[in-house]
Structure formats: C-alpha cells, structure tokens
Amino acid sequence: QNFVSAAVGMAVAVALVRTEVVWLLPGVSMLAIFPILWIAYGFPPIAFTAAVGGAALMTSLPFFVRGSWPVTPLEWANVFTLPGLILAVAVVVNIAAQHLRRSGRRLRASHEERERALARARDNELVLRTVLDTVRSGVALYDDAGRLMLANRTAEDLSRAMGFSLSEAPYAGDAVLAADRTTPVPHHQQLIPRALRGDKLSDAVEWVGPPAAQRAILADADRVRRADGTLLGTLV
C-alpha cells in the first residue's frame, strides 16, 4: 500500500507539473509513464485503477483549473487518449512482469531441486564411503577406461602389501605368487589386470608379500553394466 501511495503521489505531482507547463511543453505528459510503469510492474492488475485514474487526473486537471470543460473534439481526445495509452502500456507491462515472475519461480524451484539432489548425492556418497570403509573386504571400482573410481581402505592396504598402486598401471606387484604359493604370477596375469580385460573372477587366489609375512588374497571380479547394457566399469 505504501508503494502504491508513493506511485499515486508521483502521478499527482506529474499532473500538477503538466497543468502548469503542458501549453509550452506538450511532451511533459510522458512523465506519467514512470509511475504507471512502477504500478504495472510491481503490483496486481487491481492497481491499474490507480494508474488510469492518475492519467485521467493529468488530462482533466487543466480543465478543472480553468473552470471549463473540453469543447472541441481534439480537447476531448486529449482527455481520453493518455488514459487509454496508459492502460494499454500498463496491461502489457503487467503481463510481462507476471511472465518474469513465473519464470523466476520456476528457476528458483529448479535451483532448489538441484540443491536437494546435490545434498542427496553427497549423503549417498558419505553412506557408500562409510560402508566401504567398514567392511573387511577390499573393494575397488574401475570405470570403463580402466581408471580407478573408488577404493576402500582395505583395498588400499592390500595393494600396498602387493607392492603396487590401485590408481596406477599396471595394477600389479612383484611379490605375488599363484595359489601353489611358489609360482610367481606375471603382471598381466594378476587379479586386477585380468578383471580389467573382462575376465570374471570367482574365488581367485594369490599369495602376496615377503616369504616371512605372506597372506592369501581371495578375489572376485565382474563387470558392472548400466540398465541399457553399456559398460559402467569393473568391480574387484
């Protein structure tokens, strides 16, 4: 209401100025556009009555001051032309303002939904990381190009014991023996290289570490595919 009152006050001020100088500067009537645009943009259509009323005041006030009504068709046209123009401008501006507000609400809703989705993704990542670091098995997931996507602490500990890094080729160590605990396993035949080539492993056994502190690794591996069948990666 305060804003509408201010806009109406501006319209009255323009009307008073116009009454004094319209005979010298007919273009002064266009000052009415500014308060009218303010009302049309910032307020509901009901406020148009204030806009049109302000425009009617501007065009009729000079006649009230002179104490005479318009007598010629041109004078009557001048009385009604500005309010009609103001009403048309107000309608167009109000429609555009409503469209902008709807677009703004949609954008805010979309932004809030993305924020919620991001928060859910972060929560899911935290839960997944906690689960992976809690289980006693080593878990490593590689993408379809053979790059490490995630690995838990157990997998990292095992890879260090085997003498290699999970994130750097050839993903194989030197102190690795076959199930007989005697035969060295070449790099390309070790667990992760085989899995990345597409071999499906089930209870595959390797012995790792120095002779005095060897441990057995029992491994499974399989491809991970999306719902449409495309390859997502390899889980070891």
SSE blueprint and pairings:
Layout: H1 2-21, H2 33-42, H3 48-66, H4 73-134, E1 140-143, E2 148-151, H5 153-162, E3 176-177, H6 191-196, E4 201-208, E5 215-225, E6 231-235
Antiparallel strand pairs: 1-2, 1-6, 3-4, 4-5, 5-6
The overall pLDDT, averaged over residues, is 79
Order of adjacent strands in the largest pleated sheet = 2-1-6-5-4-3
Q: Categorize the overall geometry.
A: rod-shaped
Roughly what fraction of the amino acids lie in strands? 5-15%
Low-confidence spans:
none
In sequence order, what are the helices and strands, one letter per element?
HHHHEEHEHEEE
Class by alpha and beta content = alpha+beta
| Radius of gyration from CA coordinates | 40 Å
Tally of strands: 6
| Major β-sheet annotation | 6 strands, antiparallel
Distance between the termini: 68 Å
Helical content (DSSP H or I, runs of 4+): 40-55%
Individual helix count: 6
Written description of the protein model:
The chain has 236 residues and is of the alpha+beta class. Helix content is 54%, strand content 14%. The protein has 6 helices and 6 strands; from the N terminus they run H-H-H-H-E-E-H-E-H-E-E-E. The chain has helices at 2-21, 33-42, 48-66, 73-134, 153-162, 191-196, and strands spanning 140-143, 148-151, 176-177, 201-208, 215-225, 231-235. A 6-stranded antiparallel sheet has the order 2-1-6-5-4-3. Helix 1 (2-21) packs parallel to helix 3, helix 2 (33-42) packs antiparallel against helix 3 (48-66) and helix 3 runs antiparallel to helix 4 (73-134). The two termini are 68 Å apart.
